[in-house]
Amino acid sequence: MLVIFSVHGGNAQTSRNLINAAKKAKKIGMKVVSFVGFDGGELKKISDVCIHFPINSSAHIESLFSLISHLIIFYLKGEKWNSL
Length: 84
Description:
Elements: E1 2-6, H1 16-27, E2 32-36, H2 41-46, E3 49-52, H3 58-76
């Protein structure tokens, strides 16, 4: 599984590397999960699962991504919620 965080979701001018990585991952049979903001860009269309935050503020989206990435790591480490 490839997990991608992209503020704009990629278009012709931005995040081409992320779009290319997603396409390559799908080509070799991986699932693609993306977290995107603004209009979701190309990643919204090509991801198997896309969590889209329709927010037009890079700062707010990046703050959400920070929180989400910490929660994912917390979960993967097997931490218990009551240990906070």
